[in-house]
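Why Ribosome assembly factor mrt4? Reviewers of the renewal asked for a concrete example.
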Amino acid sequence: MSVSLTRTKKKGLESKQKLIEDVHNCVDSHARIFVFSVKDMRNTKLKDVRSQWKHSRFFLGKNKVMAIALGRSAQDEYRDNLHKISKRLQGQCGLLFTNKTKEEALDWFSNHTEDDFARAGNVATKTVVLSEGPLEQFPFSLEPFLRLKLGMQTSLKKGVIHLIKDHTVCKEGESLSPEQAKLLVMAIALGRSAQDEYRDNLHKISKRLQGQCGLLFTNKTKEEALDWFSNHTEDDFARAGNVATKTVVLSEGPLEQFPFSLEPFLRLKLGMQTSLKKGVIHLIKDHTVCKEGESLSPEQAKLL
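Here is what the prediction returned.
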């Protein structure tokens, strides 16, 4: 049987053709086109802007395809002078089609701002200085990071980080390093003290955010939540570090559940007394794989 490759359709080509059609439709239905650029943009922020500008249409990405749609020269442009716009489609930029006036659009975007957490590479909007004394807004486990990564002169006193001298986290107008950005984000959301908490007593919760943990927001009662999570279980494969829920013993005799290639692993890694007979692993004496209540080693987890 033969298949003609000329009949296969490429989704990539279809999406490009669809984008070109959408751009043409927007040219026909909107009075003005703006080229905008973005830097370190979060998708959620663009969604917010789109929701506030539902009367207009945004296109972001695929600069070459958008340039083709507009026309890259006076000879192939879709409408007069559109090739001049296509030449500006470089880097992280997009197109805004709107019926708003130039003044209305420029005024809205010039005055629209949204708060966001600092990211590496952002420019600091103000100088931030941590004062000498206790840093109760940070968990004690962060002390090595502050001292070794940020060069802060710190010490631990009764589980509380103390700053020996004032430390400038960042200076206005300078780009933030990854470490500076991480430090600025810490303790913002809930608040790390009674003075900066978002709601009463939230700083007590924030102090518990250490290690692998998270937050659950719910309208269920405390009893309903605790009851559900106390009784909810799911089966899963054993992993190193898990606690064995029961004692597992392999009995003397053939171990047909294991491929013969596993015999060296069982013998050398787990210390099992095994031998190969006609391609089948045989256990010479009973072997306890794990005991209830004990943590599993990587080898035990793999065997289970």
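The CA atoms of residues 33 and 53 lie 14 Å apart. This is the kind of structural detail the renewal will allow us to pursue systematically.
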